[in-house]
Write a structure and sequence with these properties.
It is built from nine helices and no strands.
Length: 204
């Protein structure tokens, strides 16, 4: 099933500032409303980009049987290679962007807008969603097969808030440790997933 091949890309979606932001929101005073708004914003933008790329890929290909790679395949591989290079070059940026220092005082409206823009139009996320949509369309898969990928990405974003519910007061000490590990090591997992997906696309 092609959906099982694209599911790991959900981790690439949230690696970096995206998941770090989730952790920061989960430890803020109004964490329930802010975390919910953040995930809601992402829930609108991720399907939007996947849908547009899916429709564009459907319009670009005739989907005739072919043993070779299609133009969409080449486009997806090019996007993924760009993501690989970008992720590697950004690997040493262990310090979060300066704008993240203001997130502890963010409002639900700010969190919603940030979720929409960060998960929809941040370069790595834009590439990931476009690659998933293009790949599924190019393999004649129905759009509904993109839903598990979308839901898994949103689940990752909601995980820090769910951990607060599960851990209670212990979350205040546990979440920062997980956040720091993700900030330092997530690029490695992202690279592995991206290369894995490139191999899948090239193998047809």
């Amino acid at each position: 099933m092609d959906i099982l091949k694209v599911l790991p890309m959900a981790f690439v979606m949230i690696a970096g500032p995206q998941i770090i932001t989730s952790f920061l929101f989960a430890t803020s005073p109004s964490w329930k409303k802010i975390s919910a708004a953040y995930v809601l914003g992402a829930a609108l933008s991720i399907p939007l980009v996947v849908s547009v790329s899916y429709l564009l890929a459907n319009g670009a290909e005739t989907h005739e049987e072919s043993s070779g790679l299609t133009p969409t395949d080449y486009a997806v591989v090019a996007l993924l290679l760009f993501a690989v290079v970008r992720t590697y070059r950004k690997r040493e940026e262990s310090e979060p962007p300066k704008w993240m220092g203001k997130l502890q005082s963010a409002t639900p409206k700010t969190a919603f807008v940030l979720g929409f823009l960060l998960l929809g139009f941040f370069p790595s996320d834009l590439i990931t969603s476009a690659s998933v949509g293009g790949y599924l369309a190019n393999h004649n898969d129905p759009y509904v097969e993109a839903l598990p990928f979308i839901l898994l990405a949103l689940g990752f974003l909601a995980a820090p808030a769910l951990m607060v519910v599960a851990l209670g007061e212990r979350a205040q000490t546990t979440l920062p440790k997980i956040r720091d590990w993700m900030n330092t090591n997530s690029w490695i997992v992202s690279e592995v997933v991206l290369v894995f997906f490139i191999v899948i696309v090239l193998s047809g």
